[in-house]
Every structure is written in C-alpha cells, then in structure tokens.
Amino acid sequence: MKKILNYIDGNYCEPISETWIDNYNPSNGEVYSQIANANEQDVEKAYEAAKKAFPSWSNTTIEERSRIMLRIATLIEENLEELAYAESLDNGKPLSLAKAVDIPRASSNFRFFGNAITQFASEAHESVGLNTMNFTLRQPIGVVGCISPWNLPLYLFTWKIAPAIAAGNTVVAKPSEITPMTAFMLGEICTKAGLPNGVLNIVHGTGPSAGQAIVAHKNIKAISFTGGTITGEHIARTAAPMFKKLSLELGGKNPNLIFADCNYEKMLAVTLKSSFANQGQICLCGSRIFVERSIFEKFKKDFVTKVAQLKVGNPFDENTNIGALVSKPHMEKVQSYIEIAKEEGGIVLTGGNPVVVKGSENGYYLEPTVIEVFDDQCRVNQEEIFGPVVTLMPFDTEEEVINMANGVEYGLSATLWTQNLDRTMRISKKIESGIVWVNTWLNRDLRTPFGGVKNSGVGREGGFEALKFFTEPKNICITYSE
Ligand code: TXE
Question: I need a surface site. Which of 107, 136, 377, 471 has the fewest CB within 10 A?
C-alpha cells in the first residue's frame, strides 16, 4: 500500500515511531494509503532541518527566491492532471473542481507570492528638523509553522507556505491527516524546482500529536492555522504563553442576503454554487440564505428545483456536481444537523438523505439539502455544519436582515444581492465579517486581505498582509550631523 512519508531536509523519510494512520478514499470508503504518524520527535527533526536552512535562505536574494517559487508554480501546472486526480481521490471532491480550482490556485499561490515579494517594501519616517531618519526593517521571523485543513487541501496548504518562504522564513508544515496526498507530492516538486533542503519540511499525522508538537515548539515563533474554531481556540491557548505570532482562519456561518431588486438569474446561479460548491465544505459557503419576502416563495420554488437537479455522484464521473463528503465522521456530523433541524421544527424542502452511488456503495454521499427555518437563533442557523446543507428564511426590512446576518458568533464572509448602491454601502459597512461580496461569491483577488472577525479568527492573510505576518518589523532610528 502507498505510504505517505514525511518530507524533511529535502528527503522523504519514515516516521520515527514507525507507526501509520489509514487514509480513506471517501468515494468508496476504502483505505487506500497509509500516512506517517509523526510525533514530537519528527517535528523536532523537521525543526532542526528548518533551523539549519534559515541563515542561507533568509539571505538568498529576492530574485532567486522568486525564481524558485515561480518554478514550483510552473511544475504544479505541469502536474495538474496528476495532482487533481490525487486531490479528488483523497478528498472526494469532483475531479472537475480539483482541476479547475484547487490545483490552479495552488500554483497561483506560489506565482503570486513569488512575484509579490519582489514588490514588498517598507516605510521610512523622516523626523524633520531633528536630523533623524527612521526606517522599518522587515526581517523574516525564522522557523514558522503552517497547519492546514482538509477541505481545500493543496490550495490552503500552499496559501500559507508560499508567503512564509517568500519572506525568507523556513517552514515546518502539516496538512490535514484526512487529506495528506497532494502535500506529500509537493515535496518532490519543491526538490525538482531547486528549493534548498530544509526550507520546507512537511510532517504528517494527527492534530493532537504532530500538530500540537508544532504549536507547542518553543522555537517555532509563528503559527498560521486554518481549521475549526475549537481547534483554533486550543492553538491560541497553547501559543499565547509563548507570545507567538498567530494567524487563525477559522469557521464561518455566512449569510447570503438576497433583495428583490437583484439580478435574479445571476443570483440564483451563484447561490447554487455558494451553497453547495465542494459539497458545502468551504468556510466561505453561504449557509444561511435570507430572502426579501416579496420574492421568497418564488426563490424557494426555483432554488429547490435547481438543487434537486444537482447530480450527486462519484468524483471521477464528469457529470457529477456533488462528490463525496470528506470522511465518515464528517458525514455523520452533517447528518446529525439535519436531524436537529427537524427536531427544531425546520422543514426539509429538498434532500436530507444519504445517496447510494452505483459502484461506490460505501462512499460518503449526501443529497444537497435545503431547510426552511423559522427562527434565526435555531442551532442549524447558529452552528457551523460545513456540508451540503443550507437554511432559508424570509425578511422584511434591512434592519431585520442585518440583525440576523450579524446574529451569530462567526464573521467570515457575507454575500449581498442588490442593484441598489446606497443599500450596498449601508449594509456592507454594518455587516460583521472580514469579506462582503456584492453580486458575486468567492471572487478572489490575491492582493486583498483575507480573514474573519469574531469566532472566525484573528489576523489577515493575502497580499502584503501575509508578507507582513511572516516578517517582524524593526524600527531603525538613525541620527546624523549636518
Ligand atoms: O478540523 P481541525 P476538523 C470546521 C468544520 C469542521 C470542523 C472540524 O466545521 O466540521 O472544523 O474539522 C490540525 N494542534 N472546519 O476536526 O481539527 C489538524 O490535524 C495543532 C473549517 O477536521 O481544526 C488539521 O491539520 N493542530 C475549516 C487542522 O488542524 C491541530 C476547514 C484542521 O483540523 C490540532 C476544516 C492541535 N491540537 C474544518 N488539532 C475552515 N476554516 O475552512 C487538530 N489540528
């Protein structure tokens, strides 16, 4: 059986414990590979490699760093088919999605930050009349930790690693143990691209073991994490006494606010995506849909009709819209929320049941589900489900819908559908979230700040924000004589 090895100091190696974790194929429920079960000792080995590589990498010219990163980007593109296949097999997402989104975006992450670093500059402050000049020196932090989740495996893994190494840091990274395959493949690509040994070290294994060892390592000075809010809280608690720099991208329960004056057809098509793309397993999915009452019944009918037409199937079938959920426990979690919704008085308008896919009978398939709810404080409207489940509710006034949109613990993104510019500005300012999409969804320019407020996290990724996170600003203050 295929073994997913750690990648340390430019070499693939077995875990020190010599123990392995089963890796499941969600499309058929079978174990198809084994993952290195890294522990504290493997993390220490990875840290030592990263520490050794740091003096040279942090002094490598920007041009050279950039050149290597662009080569990595090109190699990802050249291996698109193979990587997309691996991502789909590991995660259950439709192959078409992995080809169109996940892998191209992983390449863009390296290309973007490989270019961005050549434009990264810092400020100078002249204290006029005092013969004093200040400038800000932005130095890499040293060895940093990057921990990523399973929903967009290579996409989010590289979103952290790329700015970290662009800025001159060396990295100990851990992908999710549920979807480690493409991160494993990235090691070879980095070696081929000429990334010096030890600049990127990848350990595999569980959160409580390998992940915790990275976060708790006293010399890994910054942690960039994307994952669940509860894990984020735990990481913050571990890291705080060591005063580590933290960037936490956590869960979401994003509102989709639909006004009667929107471009209806465009809204309907995009809302289908914002609800169910990647089986609803994107932290940015619009899982709470609020519709202005005058079009509520029409929307409900049209939306439910379209949702019922989505094809749930094997990820490798090109007609599939909705693939498999990532794991059995996750599927059970999502199903439990459908039961909770019913107990709370919600009406399942479509979906709600597991799907048996011919030839893949043991895969984790679930119908896309739309639930009408009658109280925005109900659990299905408050807690992150992270699956192909959305709720619907009507609203009458702007004030009411803003209150409902903001009435959750999360604050990652919001989507607003209206043609009214005044309303767009009024609502955008009042929404408590890190991103507001107006008449669009998941429209990403990598220069923009990305992140959430409230329980959706702290800090921002993207563009220069990420390069700022991965550097330590130092004020150099020089006085001089005339
Ligand atoms: O994520 P975890 P899980 C949400 C979603 C989902 C829930 C739980 O609601 O149902 O989180 O998912 C590593 N120290 N999101 O449990 O555990 C872990 O190994 C260090 C939203 O699968 O947060 C993995 O690499 N690391 C999210 C990573 O954290 C630890 C995407 C994320 O896994 C650790 C995924 C520890 N103590 C789930 N414990 C988003 N924001 O997009 C775990 N990890």
Answer: 377
Q: Smallest Cα–Cα separation from 386: which of 472, 456, 295, 287?
A: 287
Confidence of residue 56 (pLDDT cuts 50, 70, 90): very high
Q: Is the CB–ligand 1 distance for residue 287 below 6 Å?
A: no
> Ligand 1 centre from 100 Cα, in Å?
24
Contact 89, 25 (CB under 8 A): yes
- In angstroms, what is the span from residue 37 Cα to ligand 1's centroid? 17
pLDDT for 107-147, tens place per residue?
A: 999 999 999 999 999 999 999 999 999 999 999 999 999 99
Active-site option among 249, 384, 461, 465: 249
Residue 145's identity, in one-letter code, is: G
Bridge partner residues of 30 (DSSP) = 25
The tokens describing 184, both together, are 């494993």
Confidence bin at 391 (pLDDT 50/70/90):
very high
HEC profile of the chain: CEEECEEECCEEECCCCCCEEEEEECCCCEEEEEEECCCHHHHHHHHHHHHHHHHHHHCCCHHHHHHHHHHHHHHHHHCHHHHHHHHHHHHCCCHHHHHHHHHHHHHHHHHHHHHHHHHCCCCEEEECCCCEEEEEEEEECCEEEEECCCCCHHHHHHHHHHHHHHCCCEEEEECCCCCCHHHHHHHHHHHHHCCCCCCEEECCCCHHHHHHHHHHCCCCCEEEEECCHHHHHHHHHHHHHHCCEEEEECCCCCEEEECCCCCHHHHHHHHHHHHHHHHHCCCCCCCEEEEEHHHHHHHHHHHHHHHHHCCECCCCCCCCCECCCCCHHHHHHHHHHHHHHHHCCCEEEECCCECCECCECCCCCECCEEEECCCCCCHHHHCCCCCCEEEEEEECCHHHHHHHHHCCCEECEEEEECCCHHHHHHHHHHCCCCEEEECCCCCCCCCCCECCEECCEECCECHHHHHHHCEEEEEEEEECCC
Place of tokens 């606010």: 257
For tokens 């990523």, name the residue. Answer: 148
pLDDT band for position 427 (cuts 50, 70, 90): very high
Bridge partners (DSSP) of residue 145 are 172, 223
Active site residue 482: no
Separation of 479 CA from ligand 1 center, angstroms? 49
Express each pLDDT in 310-320 by its tens digit: 999 999 999 99
**Torsion-angle region of residue 115: left (phi > 0), alpha (psi -120 to 50) or beta?**
alpha
Residue with tokens 């459908």: 338
- Would you say the pTM of this structure is higher than 0.85? yes
Q: For residue 477, what are the β-bridge partners?
A: 134
Residue of 177, 184, 212, 231 best suited for mutating to test ligand 1, as the one with most atoms within 8 Å of CB: 231
